[in-house]
Amino acid sequence: MDYSREIEGKRVHDPYCNWPNDKISRSKRCVWVPGPVIVGAGPSGLAAAACLKEKGVPSLVLERSNCIASLWQLKTYDRLRLHLPKQFCELPLMSFPQEFPTYPTKQQFIHYLESYAKKFDIRPLFNQTVLCAEYDQNLGLWRVRATGLKEEETEYVCRWLIVATGENAAEVVPQIEGIEEFGGIIVHTSRYKSGDAFKGNKVLVVGCGNSGMEVCLDLCNHNASPSLVVRDTVHILPREMLGRSTFGLSMWLLKWLPMRLVDRFLLIVSWLILGDTGRFGLDRPQVGPLELKNLSGKTPVLDVGTLAKIKSGDIKICPSIKRLRHQSVEFVDGRSENFDSIILATGYKSNVPSWLKEREMFSEKDGLPKKPFPNGWKGECGLYAVGFTKRGLLGASMDATNIAQDIETCWKADAKHFSATFN
Q1: For the segment 73-120, what is each residue's pLDDT rounded down to a tens digit?
Q2: Which of the ends of the chain has fewer CB neighbours closer than 10 A, N or C?
Q3: pLDDT by residue (tens digit) across 130-161?
Q4: Which of 11, 47, 156, 68 minimizes the C-alpha distance to 389?
Q5: pLDDT digits (tens, 9 = 90+) for 221-231
Q6: Do the bridges between strand 37-39 and strand 161-163 make them parallel or antiparallel, or are there none, so unpaired?
Q7: What cofactor does this chain's UniProt record say it requires (predicted)?
Q8: What is the rounded CA–CA span in Å between residue 67 and residue 114?
Q9: C-alpha torsion sign, points 390, 391, 396, 398
Q10: What sections of 120-258 are H helices per DSSP?
Q11: What is the three-class DSSP state of 109?
């Protein structure tokens, strides 16, 4: 079907088509996209585009930043490495280079993604911030309104829309009483690069996930004095067990044993290697690490040396913050301590509800698909999601493969119908 002609026909002849007057239609350009529009050029968006290309389906990738994988390139600290072995972080259809280490560095991973985009000739439109995406019932098509650097608006019209903005699109910044009084440096980890900028400072890191733990270690290595706010229970596991990666060993054991037995095994071995973390203010949840990940998406911390610094006293553990005062922090246990800087390792969240005008597939509360894994990748009316599984790059690869197969079926059916009509 020639959708571009139908769109123009709607504008001219359909009395119920209010495009000339509605807010979305005021963009300067209207572009028909024959294949899917993919919002986001991170690993998830690249994987979806590559899988579609392999099926012979073209796509258009829109990216709000000026590069692919902007989270990795612009908002991660220098010492970052993949927390899982490289074989669990590969995107579909392309392996990591053989010479890469088991846990590739940040720069190596970025190089891999750039090579991936080049191999599959993925050319995103950069600096395109999607303001609104809405399904038009009259046309049976998606209308995606985006703005560029010069605030020029473009409306992209397509049959399929793939949401690939991910779980980490927007920083989570907690509201802390007295934050305006503090006077010192307060930054989110998205703006933290290296502990070198905090040399000699007393620094409070808020958040005890993988990022918070690793930032504390980096601060120690640059002669800063970090303290870590631990607001909740946390599972800390060694990155490797019995000569294998903890994640890889877990995946292998799950093939033969129920999750609760695998959790029990992980906790026993962790206790033998790391000791009782509760002695140092790091109490474990009642639920095992794999079961907790499955239920809530909360990832266990894979220790890369931070726990040893906590045991030695180089990193201090603190309770939740009650309020901030001038370069001091008052904790919920009543004590106060002076700090030069605060780093918020408080994570990220989805931003989908802010631009996608759809309430069936995605939750307004957290911006994630309502259907649990592995069924959250497909919605209604040609809407798809990739990279919202809370299972990292492995989950994104599964989504991308499923989406490409599903769209390929429709694409081939349309081609067959078109051929039969005009031949």
Answers
A1: 999 999 999 999 999 999 999 999 999 999 999 999 999 999 999 999
A2: C
A3: 999 999 999 999 999 999 988 889 999 999 99
A4: 47
A5: 999 999 999 99
A6: parallel
A7: FAD
A8: 10
A9: negative
A10: 210-221, 246-254
A11: helix
